[in-house]
Amino acid sequence: MLVELLKKYDLITAIDGKTALEAANSEDIDLILLDIMMPDMDGFEVCNILKSNKKTSNIPIIFLTALDKQEDLQQGFKLGAVDYITKPFNPKELLSRVNTHLTLRAYEKNLALRIEIELEKNRLKQEMIYQKSKQAALGELLMHIAHQWKQPLASLSALNISQKIKIEQDLETTKDENLARIEKSQNLINFMSNTVETFRNFYLPSHSSETFSLTDSVKKVLDISDATLKYNKINILISSDETGQTYGNENEFTQIVFSIINNARDIFKKREIKNPEIKIDIQNNVLTISDNGGGIDNEIIDNIFLPYESSTNSSGIGLYIAKEIAEKNNGYISASNDEKGAVFRVEFLK
């Protein structure tokens, strides 16, 4: 009777629970009409097995049974059924309920597909952001090395020119002078080699968390950025009242500081700010960095931490990554303006 009534659908029939379970595991089922009184295994047991199986747990089940007691109905819904129809049933009512649940199932599968598509899009987006952040970090690394190498390269060039002049003019040099020149050259080469090693270690990813000093970490960033800051004539004012330690990933925290300082540097350059200045204030678990660059444009200040949002000509990745790192380390970052410029506040929960 049911086969004839539901003939417009693609039907699979099962005369017992075992056959039903085999069909549900091997076929793409959208709805199950399940009796309760069956040989060997009753409908409640079949329903329980279906709902405990990841592959079949989301298939909607309608109990279709002669059992009409309230406790049977409650048991059916408790096990996860979406509907309960008692025999003898009204054919039009049954068709209506079947159609309703198939429609809901179609919506559910469509939603699941859309979610899967959006998750894939988000994965690709995150991968692109990650790649861009790696490129940005590499560019930052090369820039810092270039600035750190500028002076020793000039010194090496001066030593070579001096030696060349002496050779061309047949000027005599003593053994001690030559050894001193070689030693000085070697010291310069060692400094340049150590610079590369220092930056390489600094940018290596680290996933461990531990207690660290915000003040010491900021000073590390300033030491590494010293050449860049001096080259751009940026004055740094730092004050610290830190008495405790902060828990998190120190290496990742330094990237937040780098991002904020680099953002200020780009603003100074873009707006041609005279006497550029960055103030850094450190309290327990709170870092505040402000500048005199004129502030963040009102039209983007609410979205400054979104990817690709930037008030300069940069990629906009830096502050987005800073926000991600802060939240990953149980912290929070915010941006605002004061009378002189932008103010970034980074706070870590205790």
From TrEMBL:
Residues recorded with modification 4-aspartylphosphate: 35
Domain of life: Bacteria
Positions in coiled-coil regions: none
Protein name: histidine kinase
PANTHER family per the UniProt record, alphabetical: HYBRID SIGNAL TRANSDUCTION HISTIDINE KINASE C, TWO-COMPONENT HISTIDINE KINASE
SUPFAM superfamilies per the UniProt record, alphabetical: ATPase domain of HSP90 chaperone/DNA topoisomerase II/histidine kinase, CheY-like
EC top class named in words: transferase
Gene3D superfamilies named among the record's database cross-references: 1.10.287.130, 3.40.50.2300, Histidine kinase-like ATPase, C-terminal domain
